[in-house]
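User: Show me a protein chain along with its predicted structure.
Assistant: Here is one chain, sequence first, then C-alpha cells.
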Amino acid sequence: MRVTAAWALGQVSSPRVVPILAKHTGAADLELRVAVVAALGATHEADALTPLASLLNDPEARVRAAAAEALGKLGDERAIRALRDRLADKDPWTRASAATAVRRLGGH
C-alpha cells in the first residue's frame, strides 16, 4: 500500500476500509504508518479504535503522536484510558497530542 492509497481509503466513510488499513499498521515504511494512522482517524469508524490504540505503542514518536491525535478526532471516549498512558511519553509531541485528545474526549 502506498501513502496516497492510505489517504484515499481514509476518505471513504465505511467500516470496510478499517481492516484494509489496519493490515498496514506494522509497515516498515514510517511514512506509510503515519498515513495509515491519519486515514484510520479520518474514517470516523468505531472499529478504528483498536488499531489506533495499538499504535500508541509504536516505536516511532511520530506514529504515537499521530495515533493520539487521530483518537481524539475519532471521538470515542473508550480511548481515554490508552491516551492517559501516553501523557508520560518520553516524546513531548506525543504527550501534547495525548493531552489534547484526552481533553477533546472529555477526560479533562
